Amino acid sequence: MKREDEDEKETKPSELLDSLPIELKMDILTRLPAKSLMKFRYVSKMWSSFIRSQELINSFSSKSSTQTRFILALSNDGNFSEPEGNLSFYFSFSDDAEESSCLVPNLEMAMPVISNHISGSCTSVHGILAVIHSFQLILCNPSTEQVIKLTPGYAGFVGYDPINDQHKVLSLLNQFSDDPVEHKVLTLGVGGGWRRIQGLNQFYTAVSMGVCINGFVFYGAYSPTPPSNPGIVCFDVRFERLSYIKAPEILVHYGNASIFIEYKGKLASIVRDPFGYFNEFDLWILEDVERHNWSKQTCVFPFSVWDSLGVMKMCIPGTNKADEIIMAPKSLSHKVQPFYIFYYNVETRNIRRVRLLGIGDNEEFRTCYELNYRSNVNIATHHFE
């Protein structure tokens, strides 16, 4: 009897999980956070093999893609004379609370920035954060805290091919010289390095950040020289083909401050005054890609929105799951005060304010992360593990 009790005690939890049917193991593990799964790889070789299996990865990705969040990046860039002290902190917030008046942050990771006094951008492309800072593209996965720094270049865009489940990076070279623009593509996770692809039959200059929508990357451009032939370059991630879409000049008028987002599955552009207060913006939507047809509507909200910000510039990074347009301050205010973001419903023209708890609203927070009014704010929408 004593021997049987000892045998029962010797049964390890990992062995109990190993004995379960594959379907049940799959259901259990896909309910866990990605960071927990990364730790469980070290339990045994069998666990590591199962967690790394493509079947589990696909199941986890499918489930997590329905639970999107947004990432807020705060940088203390420029606060230190030594570059080692400059960091970016990434916090995640739920995207499901449509009626909430406040959201609670979760710190995902911290990452060194490249150099002082240069603000960057942050977008989420199918679970991968694409961070541009000081003309360098950095890819990171907050779930695993993996970071890839790519060779600095003039322009870099990240896309995702949903058919082949591949992330690709498009890089543009020589676009400011007399030579034709050279286009190179890097497929993540596949050997072989950068590959040159066929470009457009025209000269052009990329002038905006990019946005990936349903397997296509879009970014603003001028061709051949400003202000002639403004338009949008479309990169087909799967087939690695480039095309040029005609667009109203106003969409790329503000260059790198131009805004392109996904709105209800379509490419959209938001035109507003990027240099100060505004209480309206024009929403342009690409209705027909083949015919280059755009629609336009003006969205108006009260000037009182600015009363609680304490800053003059606002970013518009994209939409939430309910297709509300997100607006947020570009930096922390001079004063220690609550940090708010705003959701604008285009159809009802209603705007609501949501407080992000803990983000710059107390001195302890700012001291802990060594932040001040020069701290830049970037937001990546539709992120998932």
From TrEMBL:
Q: Which PROSITE patterns does the entry mention? A: FBOX
Extract the Pfam families matched here.
Answer: F-box, FBA_3
Q: Which domain of life is it from?
A: Eukaryota
Q: Which residues form the F-box domain?
A: 14-60
Concerning NCBIfam families, the annotation shows: F_box_assoc_1
Protein name listed in UniProt? F-box domain-containing protein
Q: In which organism is this protein found? A: Capsella rubella
Q: What is the lineage of its organism?
A: Eukaryota, Viridiplantae, Streptophyta, Embryophyta, Tracheophyta
